[in-house]
Amino acid sequence: MGRGPGENRPRQSRSRRSGHLRPGQDQTGGRSRRRSARQGRSRRPVTDWQHLLAEVPRADFIPDDIWDAQLRPISRRTNPAEWEKLVADNSFVITQVNNGEGGEPRFASSSCSMPSVVAEMLDALDLQPDHHVLEIGTGTGWNAALLSRRAASVVSVEVDPAIAEQARQNLERTGHDVTVVTGDGLQGFAERSPYDRVISTAAVREVVPPAWFEQTKAGGVLVTPWGTDWLNGVLLTLRVDPTRAVADGRFSGDIAFMRIRSQRATLFSWQPSEAEIADADVSKSQSHGGDFDRIFNPRRGGFALGARLQSMYAWIDWDAEGERRHVVELDDGATKSFARVHADLTSSKPWTVRQLGPRRLWDEVEAAYDWWHDNGEPGMDRFGMSCTPFTQWLWLDTDENIVRELTRFDPQPKRG
After folding, report:
1. Which residues form the Ribosomal RNA adenine methylase transferase N-terminal domain (predicted)?
2. 260 and 274 belong to one structural domain
3. Is 390 in the same domain as 368?
4. Looking at the structure, do residues 315 and 201 belong to the same domain, yes or no?
5. What gap in Å lies between CA 201 and CA 258, rounded to an integer?
6. Domain that residue 96 falls in
7. Which of 43-57, 70-84, 304-318, 320-334 has the lowest mean pLDDT?
8. Are residues 393 and 351 in the same domain?
């Protein structure tokens, strides 16, 4: 699975800009540098898994040819010192670009996560020695190796045949008993279900695949990176309720991962021509300089806005018009709706907004911002998610206070 149809590929005008990102940009996105910098900050101390991270060196699982956060190639053969430094650091390592097909421009298609992030996710899993585990996204096999040191059994599903085969070799060479299956991780692996624990090493877009919690035992735990079109960068931990057919959980952390491969096409958005933007409707925002961080920072209003807003990407071009004068672009390719906001943080004056298409995207952002304010400006820790085989929804404080219904699943597939 590649980048998606040609019309959904990144716009060249955007990809050339420096300092450009959307809120919660994924950790190997290439178009953003702020996410990479933020991931370099220290996280809470690694405790429960610290000794296992030391006992299972990730260098044993990293290929000779890798890429750094800027998608710059680093070869172990020609530059061993830099290779060793990147692998030893608390950094993610890109292990495949362009789905292994080469070509330009480069985009990250597989990686090995930061050790601190790996430990954070494994801590959330609450793994016990008698547990049977399903992992979605084998990658290099390092995470599966760590799981196998503690769990009774581990099944890992990898969509890319070449990556799956290399992971099998890595695990066999290092003496780790893991069953690696080549297949679509969205379907889980029913043959060995149910599992006590399910963990994904790739982010899902809003909806958790029903197969994952359907293949989890009652009382079991499911951990996955999670995001919306607006925001990609949190950890979702669900527990399957033993008394009813539902999985409930809450959000935490500052964790951004590449999307599940079949969902990556949604990351490449749409932009009208400059002539169309010039002819767009012009208005003034209700927001001003002091609101910018509150709208876009995930630790302030950004997560809540992401919970409210549907099918909307936000791109920020930092200092595009001078220091602390940013340009924000919003788009929804499905409806061909677009907004451009000239956000001057040096002034208390309203911002200039241009909008076109059937959706007034910036109006929706400001409505979501007002909702966040009117509800007491809740932080991420007050939000949760519930999943059944037929519907999933985001909630605030309790699962009865629905913020947004995400989707419904047809229990009887249509015959075609």
Report:
1. 117-261
2. no
3. no
4. no
5. 9
6. 25-266+383-416
7. 43-57
8. no
Instruction: Indicate whether 308 and 245 sit together in one domain.
Output: no
> 338-391, pLDDT tens digit by residue?
999 999 999 999 999 999 999 999 999 999 999 999 999 999 999 999 999 889
Give the C-alpha separation, 304 to 310, whole Å. 12
Name the nearest CA neighbour of 389 among 372, 410, 366, 416: 410
Tell whether the model's pLDDT for residue 313 goes beyond 80.
yes
Token pair for 278: 């010039």
DSSP letter string over 243-294?
A: TSS-EEEEEES----PBPGGGGGGGS-----HHHHHTSEEEE-S--GGGHHH
DSSP structure string for 315-371 = EEETTBTBTTEEEEEEEETTTTEEEEEEEETT-SSPPEEEEESSS-HHHHHHHHHHH
| CA gap 63, 160 in Å, rounded | 15
Dist. CA 22–CA 232, nearest whole Å? 9
| Whether residues 98 and 152 fall in one domain | yes
116 falls within a domain? yes
Report the number of distinct structural domains present in the chain. 2
**How far from the centroid of its chain's Cα atoms is residue 13's Cα?**
24
Catalytic residues, by residue number, are: 113
**Helix, coil or strand: residue 4:** coil
